[in-house]
Amino acid sequence: MASIEATTRRCEADLAPSAGALKTFRLVKTLLAAGVILSVVQLFLLPVAGVHLSAAFLVNSGLTLIMLLGILSGRVQIDGVSLAYAALVTLTLTAALWSPDPMLALRSALYITAGFGIFAAFRYVVALQPAAGLFALKLVIIGGLAHALLVITFRLAPGVEDRFLHSGIARLLIGQNALAEHLTTNANNIKDPTKAGGLFLNGNIGAMYSEALLFASLALRPYVTRKALWSVVSVLHGAAIVASGSKAALAVVTLFLMLALIFRRYTSRPRSLRSASEAILFLTMAAGIVALLAGVAARSEIGADAGINAMRRGVLFAFAWQEFLDHPLLGHGFGGWAEAFASYGSRLSGIGIKADFPPHNTFIYGWSQGGLALLAAYVAIFAAFFRLAFGLARKRDPAAAQFGVFMIFAGLALTFHSMGENVIFFEEARLQVIFALFLGWASVAVRSTD
Known about the structure:
globular; two-stranded antiparallel ribbon
């Protein structure tokens, strides 16, 4: 915290609002707090052209407009992450030129732009008033308990989840179009009583959100005073992962938590033969535990289910690879995957794959929608995330280093799931906010003195 405040003093000449712009700064701070808490509940209220816009989207779009005006006036600096967001939006809109459904490209660009608004506003606020940035982070982590408690409740009482999905509240929190499609087709995995989605229609993506919140709560732990209460928050997010029924999420969070604790212990001590030996020992133990759990799973229904899912993913990825070889530069355009996969997928009903099966990989989505250029932009923004995280993890300040370590493993968890779940990462509003807040905090903290 002190190191970030030192950075604040150095940044004031570039970022501090003049007396006349102080009201704008206060507005940004207020909208940021509203945006992060609304990101949890969304509140789909406004019908526009057949879709319902959420209150969170409208607030975050307002932040984007204010930040863009700040950039034009010179009050807000442009950094590498901002350029990566700009590339994502530009390439997404460009892909509309060859897309079967250009409106999907416009929708995606609007989602990415709203994510940029959260990132830029949070970075701006943290640089000027770190305490306000901490407040925003705490808001989304504590607000996310609403999701965690719903997941736990739905897993214990599946009938409650069914009643929730048929309620007016669900239409506000999940979205009327998505909910109507689910109730019509029943295609999402929360129909399985061993799954629970909370604020999501897919238990695996709900678990992905809980993972991000868990790692965020652990990253922020050095900055909170009531650590016992904060531990309860972390435990509830962890319990939501277990209750979601996502086997992949449980395996990922178990492995990455062990590795994060090992990495933090090693990097927090002077480098020596003893500390290096301890790190190797703990890594060996972690690998042994994971191997033991994998062996148990392989002999159970969990292993059989995982094998079927792995086979389906293999079929999807093999198709995507062949499509990439056929037309690598432009991909399919937005809406093109469904057209390309329809005839191929219709022949695979025997293994549970349908004609409208999506690629289940954010990076394949990126290539399919916008070609190699958009895929490169996806990779660039994830690379920026890890560059900032490793920069923080190397800090001598223990709080900054811990934030960096858990940011690394949050990024690994999100990347892992993005490569195996049916999620377009930069169109998933709740996940985007956590991602943007990590980026915003790290982009300021990494420049601070130890």
